[in-house]
Amino acid sequence: IVGGTVAAVESHPWVAAIFWRGRSKEKVFRCGGSLISACWVLTAAHCFPDRSSTKPRRFSVVLGKNAMNETNAAVEQTFRVEQIILHEGYDNSAENYNNDIALLQLKARRGRCSIESDSVRPVCLPPPGQKLHPGFTCEVTGYGKENQSLWYNSPVLREAQVNLIAGDVCRQPDYYASLISDNMFCAGRTDWSRDACEGDSGGPLVCEVGERLFLFGVISWGDGCAKEKRPGVYTQVTNYNWWVEEKTGLSSVTSG
Ligand code: 4AZ
After folding, report:
1. Which part of the chain is the Peptidase S1 domain (predicted)?
2. Catalytic residue status for 100
3. Ranges 41-45, 52-56, 99-103, 134-138: which has the least confidence
4. What distance in angstroms lies between residue 150's CA and the mean position of ligand 1's atoms?
């Protein structure tokens, strides 16, 4: 996150940290994600770029994590991954990450996955097709870079407020032109000071509607970070209510 502030996971208890286990058993941070029910995390398909790296056994998910380099066993909940479901229409052939959405099923222990606490709680999905007006303020969260030129991620969870940008604007030739599909939306600041960045992908963009926070976007891509006319691009979650329902069998996730 560029231009943001340190965030307490208690204020974003759906935030998930997805790790990949390398050959020497080291845990490498891969992507953010959002807990949408006790056993399911929504993230970006591009977090799993090669088929061999989609082996669920190589991944783990940590919920309730504030700091990357310390483990607070009292609040964190760590899970193995039962399955990884990439969207069938995920397509990066045009290098625009169309349908950049994926589901991770957490492996249950003694019949249960995550347990709600002050630090762990699922986020609501917005009703299908719900539209918010351009300029609407939403919030992005992640453990990604604080500045594009750094080579390391943020050691702590960070958040920033960004504003929704109209599709017409984001499709202008001096913005992203035809790269923006109907499954995406853009968000940024008028002064380009705040943005998601590398390492934040898969994580949440949430917007408050009627005093509730809803997961409207999955952090997907962008040309650099916090650059003029290069806003962050997000997967439009309201296009995928039925897909999530079909894959998880949870009708409750669409009702908000
Ligand atoms: C990335 O590489 C990435 N500025 C994510 C978000 C943005 C850029 C890059 C948006 O994961």
Report:
1. 1-249
2. yes
3. 52-56
4. 13
d(CA 44, CA 85): 10
Model pLDDT for residues 187-228, shown as the tens digit of each residue:
999 999 999 999 999 999 999 999 999 999 999 999 999 999
DSSP state, residue 127:
P
- Whether residue 133 lies in the annotated active site: no
Is the minimum distance from the CB of 196 to ligand 1 under 6 angstroms? yes
Q: Quick check: 31 and 201 in contact, CB under 8 A? A: yes
ipTM of this complex prediction, to 2 decimal places: 0.98
Determine whether the shortest distance from the Cβ of 139 to ligand 1 is under 6 A.
no
Reply yes or no on whether 46 is catalytic: yes
Separation CA 64–CA 79 (nearest Å): 12
Contact 217, 202 (CB under 8 A): no
Ligand 1 neighbour 222 (Cβ under 6 A):
yes
β-bridge partners, 17: 32, 62
Average pLDDT over residues 101-117: 97
Both tokens assigned to 172: 């202008």
SS3 170: helix
| C-beta of 200 in contact with ligand 1 (< 6 A) | yes
Among protein residues, the one with the nearest Cα to ligand 1's atom 1 is: 198
